[in-house]
Amino acid sequence: MVLGDLGQRLSSALRQLSKETVINEKVFDDTLGKICRALLEADVNIRLVKRLRENVKQAINLEEIAVGLNKRQLILQVVIKELIRLIDFEVKPWEPVKNKCNIVMFVGLQGSGKTTTCTKYAYYYMKHGWKTALVCADTFRAGAFDQLQQNASKVRIPFYGSYTESDPVVVAMNGVEIFRKDKFELIIVDTSGRHAQEESLFEEMLEISNSIKPDNIIFVIDASIGQACELHAQAFKSKVDIGSIIVTKLDGHAKGGGALSAIATTKSPIIFIGTGEYFDDFEVFKTKPFIDKLLG
Ligand code: GDP
């Protein structure tokens, strides 16, 4: 199940609720307590959990619920609504425009799955009829060029990179220019992964962004890194204008709560999720089905 443990624990709290014969204040509090503990243990930020708890409490007044109305159903509905509110800001995510040159830049921590995700994203649009290309602007990590080139050739997507040019800004600009002239509709630029403390790499990311002027910046976040997600997301958000988020590794044993908190912090919409190492392991993100799946 997606988000493994968290999903199981949330659905177990709600299953328990459906077994109760009478839904009184105590049962309601117990259920809410279990839900909040499950979220905290899955690394969702305590501030968000508190807010969720208060909102659910405020929305439900057991005494006032008319006889005949299903209290369990009502509690479930409110919990689902509040979980959705954690990650859905009702902002329409950016989407590329057909028959135009769209430039998308990928940023994220090293190891988050950024290079794999660039390829998945490119492959997804190629399969949907877009003229797509990949640019490797990571001149920092040895092997980045080969990795993206190999990925690109596996999915038969044109690729640009340089073994000799060490300035990522130059590589990014050259790649974008070449594909723009060739009327590519979607040019995807992979940048160097970094650690949140690496100021120089952040500056590089900013320089690339200022020179290629991407239509969208996608932040790739690994669901498995827990609480650290939120800090990293804040660090990235403070430097560049993150337009959307892709959460990776949701197939594993990720607790996932850290990613949820990161999304709540950046207030950027999730557009896709990564669910495996293959290029097809990629799904369009939809909030309601995601939360439904989480609740089992
Ligand atoms: P980068 O350093 O951020 O560019 O990360 P890579 O793209 O090199 O990915 C790091 C590792 O994560 C690789 O072994 C990928 O196969 C793996 N990976 C990427 N996305 C996913 C995913 O959605 N699920 C799983 N299980 N592994 C992933």
UniProtKB/TrEMBL annotation:
Q: Which reaction does it catalyse?
A: GTP + H2O = GDP + phosphate + H(+)
Residue limits of the SRP54-type proteins GTP-binding domain? 269-282
A molecular function GO annotation: GTPase activity
**Subcellular localization, as worded in the UniProt entry:** Cytoplasm; Endoplasmic reticulum
GO cellular component entries: cytosol; endoplasmic reticulum; signal recognition particle, endoplasmic reticulum targeting
| Source taxon at top rank | Eukaryota
The Gene Ontology biological process terms listed for this entry are: SRP-dependent cotranslational protein targeting to membrane, translocation
Keywords from UniProt, A to Z, are: Cytoplasm, Endoplasmic reticulum, GTP-binding, Hydrolase, Nucleotide-binding, Ribonucleoprotein, RNA-binding, Signal recognition particle
- To which protein family does this belong? Belongs to the GTP-binding SRP family. SRP54 subfamily.
Q: What is known of its domains?
A: The M domain binds the 7SL RNA in presence of SRP19 and binds the signal sequence of presecretory proteins.
* Reported function: Component of the signal recognition particle (SRP) complex, a ribonucleoprotein complex that mediates the cotranslational targeting of secretory and membrane proteins to the endoplasmic reticulum (ER).
- Please identify the protein, giving its name as recorded: Signal recognition particle 54 kDa protein
The organism encoding this protein is Rotaria sordida
